[in-house]
């Protein structure tokens, strides 16, 4: 069993489906000049067999509500004074902006650089999303690593 030091204050994203942790890290695009990040791949999990875990030191107010798009089975714990003060249950978002990139080369979002990428959930079971502009369908259960956009830095607030 791998022992990772507990953090005094920060965010622990636990029970990430094994293999999804790197996608979540890529999406969050955490400023590592400000935060210490621990990424544990393929840890033993009593619940799910194998899991990934991400610990972000000293960050408490990162907006994680859209994380359910990437992995709805992950859990988010907010840590203060080494204790879990809040648990966030992720939900599959019904509308996402600037997270999935539309692959359709004729879509307005592929042509207009500043057009927001807006997708609507059409099927919760298969996590299918429809592009608002061209009606292209993306399934988040398939290999979609090139469709995920980095979380925008301006939306990111570091814990002060
Ligand atoms: Zn589109």
SSE sequence, one letter per element: EHEEHEEEHEEE
Shape: globular
CATH architecture of the largest domain: 2-Layer Sandwich
What CATH first level of the largest domain would be assigned?
Alpha Beta
- Can you list the ligands bound to this structure? zinc ion
CATH level-four homologous superfamily name of the largest domain: Aspartate carbamoyltransferase regulatory subunit, N-terminal domain
Question: What attributes characterize this protein structure?
Answer:
160 residues; Alpha-Beta Plaits; 2 domains; 4-stranded antiparallel beta sheet
Structure report:
By secondary structure, the protein is mainly beta. 10% of the residues lie in helices and 34% in strands. A five-stranded antiparallel sheet has the order 2-3-1-4-5, with helices on one face. Strands 6-7-8-9 form a four-stranded antiparallel sheet, with no helix packed on it. A hairpin with a 4-residue loop joins strand 7 (118-123) and strand 8 (128-131). It is globular, with a radius of gyration of 16 Å. The termini are far apart. Bound molecules: zinc ion (ZN).
